Each structure stands twice: as structure tokens, then as C-alpha cells.
Amino acid sequence: MSTTLISQEQLLAQPADDYMNDAQQQFFRALLLQQRSELQARIAEEFEALRERETSSDPADIGSAEEQRQWQLRLLEREKKLLDKIDEALDRLARGEYGWCIETGEPIGLKRLLLRPTASLCIEAKERQEQREKHLRNTEQ
Predict the structure, then answer these.
(1) 68, 87, 107, 134: least CB-packed within 10 angstroms?
(2) Range of the domain at 40
(3) Does residue 17 lie within any of the structural domains?
(4) Residue 60: how many CB atoms within 10 A of its CB?
């Protein structure tokens, strides 16, 4: 098995019959691991910034600092969810299920995976999911 990764151009130039071959799986594994590493570093930096924040006795500064803290906590929560999605994608890769729609079993597609490496649904299934969510939101109002 070769350890040389293919480029994005080489990936997209491969025939459709080669979908999710070893080279493509290696490419996406490396991409996901790189994104995971970068995300973990950002999360660590954000946590450190939260820990180091100085407290003030001025009520306006306290309010502003609390608002900033809440914003950072929301950002950390979003990043944690993305980290979970990356881990799920790596698990699907390990099981040989990566790149295939979990709803339909159809290929998700290389272009979609390049844009969103954590995608688990093909475009059609994602659109159906969004329509269901929109319908649920409308019925709850």
C-alpha cells in the first residue's frame, strides 16, 4: 500500500468506478486528521483564553466580559460538535462506510466530500432532511 497521498486534482480526475478506492480513503483520512488536529488546537487556545481572562470591578466591563465569554462558549460548543462529526467520519472510514450515504447507500460524491468531509448524506437525502426540519419548525410555530 502506497503512503503517497494523491492531490485534490488527482482525486477528482479518477474514474467514477474507482469511488472510495484506497487512495481516496487515504486522502480523506489525512484531510480529516488534519482538520481534527487544527480544531483541537483552536479549542485548546479558546479554553486557555477563557481561563486567562482577567476580572474587572466595573459593571460595564463585567457585562461586556460575560457577553464575550458566552459567545466564546457557544463557539466552543460548535467546535466540539464539529470535532464529534470528524470522529464519526473517521469511524465510518475505519468501517469502510465513508463516502456512502447513511440513508440511501448511494455515493455522496467526491466534490461534496471535499467541501464537507464530514458529510454522511448525499445531496438528495440532505435536502429531504432539511425539508423535514423546515416542516417541523413550521408546525411548531
Answers:
(1) 134
(2) 8-140
(3) yes
(4) 8
If DSSP codes are grouped into helix, strand and coil, which group holds residue 87? helix
Q: Any idea what DSSP says for residue 121?
A: S
For residue 110, give the CATH number of its domain.
1.20.120.910
Q: Residue 113: pLDDT above 90?
A: yes
pTM of the shown model:
0.82
The pLDDT of residue 64 is: 79
DSSP bridge pairs for 8: none
Alpha-carbon span 18 to 117, nearest angstrom: 18
Q: Answer whether residue 2 is part of any domain.
A: no
Dihedral angle sign, alpha carbons of residues 67, 68, 74, 77: negative
- Contact indicator for 122, 104 with CB cutoff of 8 Å: yes
Using DSSP's 3-state secondary structure scheme, residue 107 falls into: strand
pLDDT beyond 80 at 26:
yes
**Res 55: pLDDT:** 65
Cell of 102: 447513511
The model's confidence at residue 33, banded by pLDDT at 50, 70 and 90, is very high
Q: How far is CA 87 from each of CA 51, 57, 69, rounded to the nearest angstrom?
A: 26, 42, 27
